[in-house]
Design brief:
Layout lengths: L77 H13 L1 H23 L3 H21 L3 H31 L2 E7 L8 H5 L9 E5 L6 H16 L6 E6 L6 H16 L4 E6 L7 E4 L3 E5 L28 E7 L7
Parallel strand pairs: 2-3, 3-4
Antiparallel strand pairs: 1-7, 2-5, 5-6, 6-7
Helix pairs in contact: 1-2, 2-3, 3-4, 6-7
Organism: Taeniopygia guttata
GO molecular function, one term: identical protein binding
Pfam families: MIT, MIT_C
């Protein structure tokens, strides 16, 4: 039997964050932190392949948090859990596959880290650490265990540094994350795009979108309102600023009044204003989150038919190419 050859781990970069107002504290020694506390909102790291899975290409999608009722320190991604089950069934071959997946994921994390895409790199660091911890648990080779523990400690420390940097940006009102939705991409329904930012304290929402006019655009806004009603936030007021459709003004007003009346049955007030000069699209929550979508809420393609997949479930509906910019500010401006 050939001796075990350690994989080539990438070197996690030293902190290269913008300098804060006061000198940044020295980088701490390897912290004894639990991997699942690194990032409360986890998702699979795009751009990596896993045994029995698929390779995702292109831009990283929005981070998705699990429902708050199921979020806990021991939360593990579906991917990691399924890999663990596969590993137990496949024995040494499963461990080797898990090892490759873990190394590939941390390589992706380092690439994103170097590119200053810190939020995405944090997700990949966390997932990669989780996979490598499973390898350590499964192996009986002490030299191998020692090697992996060293690298895991390094990646944990870097991930913790990134997490602190992101939190500071949020506190300073400088946080910015950009999500690129590619042409014909799927999996970008409203719940998956916004759920991370709809915390329990959200009670007021502002929507500025000039194109809540045609029938399909009105349905988009209705679906957005349905998402707010379902929670976990406790929205009480929604402010809509849009433009008036001169061609079918009465139909637009009737539809919006219908949405307003329906929302009132759930204890939600909808205020509607019209502007002839509005152009920018923007959605704001009173917890400080601000989301700017290049195409507003109307970034879904027309379904192929009324009985085609994706007609009802927007997660399955192909999208137009657009960009989503997410900011966090200390104060939400009023309209």
């Amino acid at each position: 039997m050939s001796p075990w050859t350690p994989p080539e781990f990438p070197t996690s970069p030293l902190p290269t964050f913008p300098a804060p107002a006061s000198p940044r504290p020295a980088r701490p020694a390897a912290a004894a932190i639990f991997v699942h506390t690194l990032c409360p909102g986890r998702t699979r790291c795009r751009g990596t392949s896993v045994p029995g899975g698929r390779k995702d290409k292109g831009a990283t999608p929005p981070l998705r948090s699990p429902p708050r009722s199921r979020r806990h320190p021991g939360y593990r991604s579906r991917r990691s859990a399924s890999l663990s089950v596969s590993m137990s069934r496949a024995g040494s071959n499963g461990t080797a596959a898990l090892e490759r997946a873990g190394v590939e994921t941390v390589k992706r994390a380092v690439q994103l880290d170097v590119a200053c895409r810190f939020q995405e790199s944090l997700v990949c660091y966390q997932e990669g650490i989780d996979l490598l911890l499973q390898v350590v648990k499964a192996t009986t080779d002490e030299a191998k265990k020692h090697r992996y523990r060293q690298k895991i400690s390094e990646y944990m420390t870097r991930a913790e540094d990134i997490k602190k940097h992101i939190e500071k940006e949020k506190q300073d009102g400088k946080y910015h994350k950009q999500i690129r939705i590619e042409e014909n991409a799927t999996g970008f329904g409203y719940e998956k795009l916004f759920h991370e930012y709809l915390t329990e304290i959200v009670s007021e929402v502002w929507v500025e979108d000039p194109y809540i006019r045609q029938v399909h655009q009105l349905y988009n806004f209705l679906r957005f309102c349905e998402m707010l009603v379902k929670g976990p936030c406790k929205v009480k007021t929604i402010h809509l600023l849009t433009s008036c459709d001169e061609g079918s003004r009465s139909e637009q007003r009737i539809a919006l009044e219908g949405i307003k009346q329906s929302l009132s049955n759930y204890g939600v007030t909808l205020s509607i204003e019209f502007s002839s000069s509005i152009h920018d699209r923007e959605i704001r929550f009173n917890n400080g989150w601000m989301i700017k979508i290049g195409r507003g809420l109307d970034y879904f393609k027309k379904p192929q038919g009324r009985f085609s997949i994706g007609y009802c479930d927007l997660d399955l509906r192909p999208c137009h190419e657009t960009t989503v910019d997410v900011f966090h500010t200390k104060h939400t401006k009023q309209m």
